[in-house]
Amino acid sequence: MPWHQRLPLTLTLTLVALLHVAGAVFLALTLLRWLPAWQAAGLATATSLPSLIWALLRIVAPAQSLFRALAGTVSSYRDGDYSFSLSWQGRGTLRELVNAHNELGETLRAQRQSLVQRELLLDTMVQNTPVAMLLVDPNGRIVHANLAARRTFGGGRRLEGQEFAALLASAPPSMIDAFAAGGDCMFSVGDGDAEDIYHLSRRRFRLNARHHELILLREMTSDLRRQEVQTWKKVIRVISHELNNSLAPIASLAHSGRELLRRGQLERLPEALTTIEERARHLEGFIRGYARFAKLPAPRRDPVQLATFVDQLCSQIPFALEGTVDLAAIAHFDAAQVEQALMNLLRNAHESGSAPDAVRLALRRTTDGWRIDVLDRGPGMNEAVLDNALLPFYSTKRNGTGLGLALAREIAEAHGGRIALLNRPEGGLCVSLLLPAG
């Protein structure tokens, strides 16, 4: 390596300049001895200046090449090409600049590779999901469609660039109605054994400062049918259990009553008939509960004066009211259905082992509706029971039907609300019925 490349650039330039100046001074002094003053000065300058310029250009040339290389790699980075690196054998500030530039390139290459891998993974997941996914731009044209969407809407063909409205026009009427309704919903296509059930979800968001819509369409036929089979199996088990528990004693007591009648022991006959009546009424109530759950009509949201509603409810099943109810407060719900739901909740509270005076009802206004809490001081529920308590036909009671909480949930959701269960810190359970304002 030449000696001037091992020194810092500034020091090298300074030394070379001093050497050339010293040479020029020496040449001028020598010429002054032989030539007139003006001729000697001109000759010395003309002789040393080209040499000085040539030396300076030679020393600066490597730095100029480095600067051109830096400008080129920066342009490549701007274009997304991070495959370049630089080599500089010198030291000092330029060496630090080159090292920092190469480290930047390595970092950008690693980030670019990681980003490409994530994009490939995301694209693989999107393409292979069974959910049909469509991204529609503000003009109604499809920007992206995965494989499931191509099968659902285009027979396997690419959909990008097509108008979504034109594709939807050839869809089944039930699907067109579901999209026209807006929002999330479930709908079915076909009928009988060929019926398919779908869940539609639509989300709007901004992409590149423009509004886009993401459409998700999932076929749920197989999942729902598996769940339906499991539900029916459970229904059959519960009904069979209840029928056996009632019919077996009825048959036995009927046989005993006939024997008592044949023997003339009529004094014991009323007891047998009373037991038969009790079991028959229990079975009747059991079947009525199932019928009510299966045939729950759409709620009629009429204006209800809450003070009157609470008084009427208290006349049918006892409870203590927490706080007071505004006499002028009006809510809109189906009074008969909500009353049935609350009676189920209050009956459960009394059957929890709580003291009768510890069963309470609290009613309060929320920002978007009404909240009715049924509180008790029973043992509460463990995590497993809390997870399953709202499922139809799930019960921890020996003679329970598993319909009380499920029916309350159906009524709440039919009103656009929900039901929630929470163990109280001091012991007991809080069941909240949340109803919207409208």
TrEMBL record:
Membrane topology, from the record: Multi-pass membrane protein
SMART domains for the chain: HATPase_c, PAS
Annotated catalysed reactions: ATP + protein L-histidine = ADP + protein N-phospho-L-histidine
One Gene Ontology term, aspect cellular component: membrane
InterPro entries (UniProt xref): BphY/WalK/GraS-like, HATPase_C_sf, HATPase_dom, His_kinase_dom, HisK_dim/P_dom, HisK_dim/P_sf, PAS, PAS-like_dom_sf
Chain ranges of the PAS domain: 118-154
Chain ranges of the Histidine kinase domain: 238-438
EC number: 2.7.13.3
UniProt-listed Gene3D superfamilies: 1.10.287.130, Histidine kinase-like ATPase, C-terminal domain, PAS domain
Superkingdom of origin: Bacteria
PROSITE patterns: HIS_KIN, PAS
Protein name: histidine kinase
Organism per entry: Luteimonas deserti
